[in-house]
Amino acid sequence: MSGVLKIDIAETAEELKAVLEQQQRSSQRRKVQVLWWLKTGQANLSNSAIFVLSVNCAGSTTVW
User: Fold this and answer.
1) Does residue 4 sit within a domain?
2) HSE on the CB side for 7, CA within 13 Å?
3) pLDDT digits (tens, 9 = 90+) for 9-60
4) CA distances, 57 to each of 11, 18, 50 (Å)
5) Residue 22 placed within a domain
6) Cα–Cα distance list, 11 to 4, 20, 22, 57, 63 (Å)
7) What span, in angstroms and rounded, lies between the C-alpha atoms of 9 and 14?
8) Helix axes 13-22, 26-40, angle to 10 degrees
C-alpha cells in the first residue's frame, strides 16, 4: 500500500503530556508535542503543522 502510513504510539496521552511538560529542549519538546497531538486526535499525519514541526531540522525525522 503506497501512501499509507500508520503509527502506533505506545504511550498514553497522559504519559505524553507528562513527558511534554518535563522537556527543557525545544527540539525534544516539538517531537513529543507532535506525538501528543497525534495521540489526542488534535492533528493527523496530513496536517501541514505536523510536517513543519517534524522536519524543522534536516534529518530530524530519521532520528526519532
Assistant:
1) no
2) 14
3) 999 999 999 999 999 998 889 889 888 988 998 877 766 556 665 555 555 4
4) 25, 24, 13
5) yes
6) 22, 12, 15, 25, 18
7) 12
8) 160
Structural domain count of the chain? 1
* DSSP assigned state of 25: S
Confidence (pTM): 0.66
Length of the chain in terms of residues written: 64
Cell of residue 61, nine digits: 525525522
Tell me which DSSP letter residue 32 carries: H
Widest Cα–Cα separation across the chain: 38
Q: Which domain holds residue 54?
A: 13-63
